[in-house]
Write a structure and sequence with these properties.
Low-confidence stretches: none
Oligomer: single chain
Structural class: alpha/beta
Helix content: 40-55%
Distance between the termini: 34 Å
Length: 379
């Protein structure tokens, strides 16, 4: 049981699922270091797993899809009420609304803030009025943050250039890192005559390139009718760019996509794939590609910030043009044209990159250092 007198660290993300799946290593490290960890996030089916790890959970309603000022002000008040009661040593935020409203609430109470800008999201992909509003909110929310982590230098440079954060506040992280003992290369089953299987792992959002994946699958299957195109991820109906269930069911009925649903453990699906695909429009640091690389899989990805941090053309990946299904199809056909030995060599390079640059221990060390610097008074 955690010592009630231990310093409290609050983690806040817009989905409890995200905390369980992507922050477990950091949580274990914080608990080992003697911190009391409290997660502030919307309650979902993953709360029990979070509590079993030794984390206290506080439910908060976050409207991920909406842009209502009244709801956001209510969210700000709820954050302030929760944080005033907890009085944590530090507040760690991920995703837009916790980073904005959670940070503003924490700063109003004198609580040190550490942010993670894990990706720019729809507002920065499709520039418009919403982009300008989000920029203004970030400027206000990040102004007094102790550390603002970015997952690639492109996002950091953009925030600095547009005055949303000062360069001195920023630091880089290799994504959420990858536990190299959990994600290890697994020999693919030796199935004679088995079809080549591509796998895309992502939330079913247009910004992830799901539509392009389906369109490219049609193109590739014209030349390679035995190729399989698997899709793993949950239908995120709370997002403005979500793919609806009827569309996915239509792809399945057509025979273009094999939809696998969602899974708490993606490793069996990665192990069964011959190559992993992510045609995203922009990323912070894509977890699916990190996990695939750690499991020694060759990659196909868009030539955009975030993806190219781990998927490297001519090394472990084929890259394609963003929002271009035909370019994606050409990249997948190039993967199919390789010999098994050539694909195996690409996969081995993926694992080597993961080992050299993306070990979760690096991420945990940087967070612990940032927390320590934030809570120790500057003399």
């Amino acid at each position: 049981m955690t010592d009630a007198s231990a310093p409290v660290v609050v983690l806040s993300i817009n989905m409890t699922w995200n905390i369980v799946n992507f922050r477990s290593g950091l949580i274990r490290r914080l608990l080992t270091e003697g911190y009391r960890v409290v997660a502030v996030s919307p309650a979902d089916a993953h709360v029990d797993r979070l509590v079993a790890m030794g984390v206290e959970h506080v439910d908060i309603a976050i409207d991920n899809k909406g842009v209502s000022p009244l709801r956001d002000l209510a969210l700000l008040r709820n954050y302030r009420r929760i944080l005033k009661d907890l009085r944590p040593a530090a507040f760690l935020g991920w995703t837009i609304k916790p980073n904005v409203w959670g940070s503003l609430a924490a700063q109003s109470l004198g609580i040190p803030v550490i942010n993670n800008i894990s990706g720019l999201g729809t507002a920065f992909i499709k520039v418009g009025l919403l982009t300008r509003i989000v920029q203004a909110l970030y400027r206000a929310a990040l102004a007094r943050s102790s550390t603002v982590f970015f997952q690639n230098r492109h996002d950091r440079d953009l925030f600095v250039e547009q005055g949303m954060v000062r360069a001195a506040q920023t630091a880089l992280l290799p994504g959420s890192g990858i536990d190299l003992t959990d994600f290890t290369p697994v020999a693919a089953p030796d199935e004679k005559g088995a079809s080549f299987a591509f796998l895309m792992v992502a939330r079913l959002l247009r910004d992830k390139g799901v539509v392009e994946y389906a369109e490219a699958a049609r193109i590739v299957r014209a030349a390679h009718p035995d190729a399989r195109f698997r899709l793993l991820g949950f239908l995120d109906v709370a997002n403005r760019t979500a793919i609806d269930r009827a569309t996915v069911e239509g792809w399945v009925a057509e025979g273009v996509i094999d939809y696998l649903g969602e899974a708490d453990d993606v490793r069996p699906h990665l192990a069964a794939a011959d190559a992993v695909v992510l045609p995203s429009y922009r990323e912070g640091m894509p977890r699916s590609l990190l996990e695939a690389a750690a499991m020694a899989k060759p990659l196909v990805a868009t030539d955009v910030p975030g993806c190219t941090e781990i998927a490297r053309a001519g090394d472990n990946a084929f890259l394609c043009t963003v929002r271009d299904a035909r370019s994606l199809a050409e990249a997948m056909c190039a993967m199919l044209a390789l010999t098994p030995a050539e694909r195996g060599a690409m996969g081995a390079r993926s694992r080597a990159i993961a080992e050299a640059e993306f070990d979760t221990v690096v991420v945990e060390d940087r967070y612990l250092d940032a927390i320590q610097r934030a809570i120790v008074p500057k003399g």
